[in-house]
Amino acid sequence: MQNEPILDQSHLAILINSFKIAPCSTKAVSLNPQAAPEPTQRQQPDKSPKLLFDEKNPAASSTVFSFSPNRDTLGGTAYFIVEAVNILIDCPAWNDINQRFLQEQGGVQWLVLTHRGAISKVKEIQQTFGCNILIQEQEAYLLPGLTTTPFHQRFELTSHSRAIWTAGHSPGSSCLYYDGFGGILFTGRHLLPTPQGSVLPIKTAKTFHWRRQLQNVQKLVEEFTPETLRYLCPGANIGFLRGKSWIDQAHQHLSEINATIANPSLE
Fold first, then answer.
1. Is the pLDDT of residue 229 over 80?
2. Which of 164, 181, 166 is CA-nearest to residue 60?
3. I need a surface site. Which of 18, 126, 156, 174 has the fewest CB within 10 A?
4. What's the whole-model pTM score?
């Protein structure tokens, strides 16, 4: 039996319809009408962070966790890489369970903010852990009074992880790459799950620069290979992944999206 293509016809329609909209349109409406909204987050008891991939990385003795969606960031999902240098990716809900968990794991050395919409309780996190805050330079102004590390194109946090500027969703939108577990790309809102369970760039009324967002998908395809990029961990819409917090075969996903973008008929 042949495998179903990851980017099926319904996914292609999302991108195709986006390209049919005039670039000069200024209407404050959704520019991607087939992209369903994120499932409504019901009021639930606070949950402990979830271990991903069910194993440690033998090479780096690391683990990766995901947090429950944070209502303060419109359902955003934060992640935590536990290794020699602990990296918190975006802001989880600032409750007792998450604070205690982060303390038990050895605290936070880096807080990486993948886009402006992921900012929540940053001051409290830095005051509690004394961590560095990494944010793309075009959005650093949103954190007045805090000590930040702005970056331009990319920034090496450790020998295993680096931040990559992928503008489009917002001016300072970025991704965090970690080379453990075959390679993980934490995409923030640069790439988001769809109701079909895939991951795509999604165009909305608040998208900063759609063409640039698509170009940055191509940049990621060129930067990685199937051997260096296995998983995508998006920063929102996790409910569409049906209990998971990641997409496997990451490079194949990106390549299929890029092939659709490059189709001359879409221009």
1. yes
2. 181
3. 156
4. 0.82
